[in-house]
C-alpha cells in the first residue's frame, strides 16, 4: 500500500517555461506545500515572482533542461516549444515527465497531431500535408482554405486563412498542412484531466470568442450555450482525443461546432489552457491544481462548476509599448463578481497577453454583460 505520509516540501516540481501558465501553476503548488523550480529565458519572467528557484536558460538548451531535471522529482511544462530530444532522453533515464515527451512531440507537429486523432476515429476537419504551398497548388483547391505551419505556431501565429488567389501574400513560407475551412456556429473547448491510472475528469464545455484582428481568444463563457446532449458529445470526443494520445496531464481540447451540428477537433494543448482560466474562481478544482495533483500522483479533484462565468483576456492596447500602466482598475474592481489577474510581465506591447478578468454571476448572460462593461473600463497601456 502506498504511504500517505509526506515530508515537507511534499515534492520538488520543475516547470519548463515561466510565463503566466507556469506562474499560476506555481502559485497553486506553493499553496499546497511543494517546492517549485522554473526554467525560463528571462530572469524576470512571471513565474520568477512565485517560484522557489529559477534557472535562466533557453528551452532548447539540453544542459539547462538537464539542470532542472536534476533538482526536480517531476517535470511538467507550460509551453510546447521545448527540445523534445532531451526530454525523451531524460524520460528514458527514468525521469518523471508529464505529459510524456512523446505526447509533446506529436502535438508540436500539427500534421502528426491530426493524423493520430484521425487514425483513432476522432472527428477532425479534412486536412492534407503540403510541403510547397504555391500558385499551382492554389489553382486546384476550393477556397477558402486554412494553412497551418506544422510547427512553431501559437496565439494565432502560424495560421493563414486564404479566401481566394488574392491572398497569396498571406502564404506562410514554411512546411505546412492545409485544412478545409469550417463554417462553424461556435468555437468550443473542453479541459480534460487524465492521471497515471488513466482515470479521467472532464470539465464543462466552454464557448470561445476570438478577436478577429489577432485570432487570439478574447472571451470564454461557461457553461457553453448549447444543447446538453451536444455538451455531452463534445466531452466524450475530448476524452477520446486524449485517450488517443495516451496523455497524462491536463489538456485543452479546442473544437468547432459546425453549422450542421458536427463537432470537429481543431487543436489540443498539452497543458493548462486559456479556456480553463475560469476554473480558478468557478470550479471546485482549478485546472492548475488538477495538473499538480496529476503530476505528483495525487487523487484527481472534482471538476464541478460552482457558478456560471465569463473570462476576458486582457491584452496590451494597440499603439502602446513599454512599462505597463493599468487604467480603470478601480472601476473594474467595483463590478460585483469580478476577479482580476495580472501576470507580472514587465513590458506590454500590442495584443500581448498581460492578464485576465473572470466574472462569476447567476447566468452566463449576466456575466457576459459585465465583461462588456469592463472592456470599456480596463486598459493596459504604457
TrEMBL record:
What pathway or pathways are given for this protein in its record? Answer: Purine metabolism; IMP biosynthesis via de novo pathway; 5-amino-1-(5-phospho-D-ribosyl)imidazole-4-carboxylate from 5-amino-1-(5-phospho-D-ribosyl)imidazole (N5-CAIR route): step 1/2
Keyword set, alphabetical order:
ATP-binding, Decarboxylase, Ligase, Lyase, Nucleotide-binding, Purine biosynthesis
ATP-grasp domain location: 114-296
Under Gene Ontology molecular function, one entry of this record is:
phosphoribosylaminoimidazole carboxylase activity
Read off the InterPro entries from this record. Answer: ATP-grasp, ATP-grasp_carboxylate-amine, ATP_grasp_subdomain_1, PreATP-grasp_dom_sf, PurK, PurK_C, PurT/PurK_preATP-grasp, Rudment_hybrid_motif
Reactions catalysed according to its record: 5-amino-1-(5-phospho-beta-D-ribosyl)imidazole + hydrogencarbonate + ATP = 5-carboxyamino-1-(5-phospho-D-ribosyl)imidazole + ADP + phosphate + 2 H(+)
Q: Which Pfam families match?
A: ATP-grasp (PF02222), PurK_C (PF17769), RS_preATP-grasp-like (PF22660)
Report one GO cellular component.
cytosol
Assigned EC number: 6.3.4.18
Q: Which GO terms describe its biological process?
A: 'de novo' IMP biosynthetic process
Q: Does the keyword Nucleotide-binding apply?
A: yes
* Top class in the EC scheme: ligase
Q: Which residues bind ATP?
A: 110, 148, 179-182, 187, 266-267
What is its biological role? Catalyzes the ATP-dependent conversion of 5-aminoimidazole ribonucleotide (AIR) and HCO(3)(-) to N5-carboxyaminoimidazole ribonucleotide (N5-CAIR).
Per UniProt, subunit arrangement is:
Homodimer.
Please give the family membership noted in the entry: Belongs to the PurK/PurT family.
Q: What is this protein called?
A: N5-carboxyaminoimidazole ribonucleotide synthase
